[in-house]
Write a structure and sequence with these properties.
With 80 residues, the protein is of the alpha+beta class. It contains three helices and four strands.
């Protein structure tokens, strides 16, 4: 099972869509709320160069900015 990290804010609609996608596909993830965690917000900005949520990292190396369902399916090996 791949490791998934997601940087979010509570008001982000795309963050909610991404988390729902993970639940529907039984993908466990670690969530970081960057509105409350400045260290994680800075970490996210260092990794992407921008401050946009969601930022999803798969297996510590593949970075997806925004909710790109097709890209996530590919990275997570989800068929359909």
């Amino acid at each position: 099972m791949p490791t998934v990290e997601i940087y979010t804010t509570p008001t982000c609609a795309y963050c909610k869509m991404a988390k729902e996608f993970f639940k529907e596909n039984n993908i466990e993830y670690t969530e970081y709320d960057v509105s409350k965690d400045q260290a994680r917000a800075q970490e996210m900005t260092q990794k992407t160069g921008i401050f946009v949520v969601p930022v999803i990292i798969v297996d510590g190396k593949d970075i997806v900015v925004g909710f790109d369902k097709n890209k996530l399916k590919q990275l997570l090996g989800i068929k359909s």
